[in-house]
Amino acid sequence: MADADAWLALHSSAAHNMQKIVWETDQKAFDKRLQDEEDELRSVRDGIYKVIGMYTMFQGVIFMAVSQSSLLNCALAWCPGSLCAAVYLATIIVVVQRLMAEDLLKNEIMETQLLPSSVTSSFSFF
Asked: What's the predicted TM-score (pTM) here?
């Protein structure tokens, strides 16, 4: 019975209440950080789709211009092809960089998710 009284006294102590407030504040900070990282990940993914959409639109404009141009002869045929190749390479580079950034963000999110679980698992034996 004395052990139960000691646990109840410890549970209602000011130190316990202060530690509980600190833990709740830390938990809110972890949740906010996780939400911010997930928002950034969504932003990176949206950026990838925007780049691909712009590339597609550019290709459509070039093909439309080539199909409607009566001034395009063999001497100028390299212009649309080289423009398409340059934009293709730029698009590939940007998409690869954004995919690498997405991978780094996913790793950060996994690490952030591990932080609170490591803190709570170390106190689970109490």
From this structure: 0.68
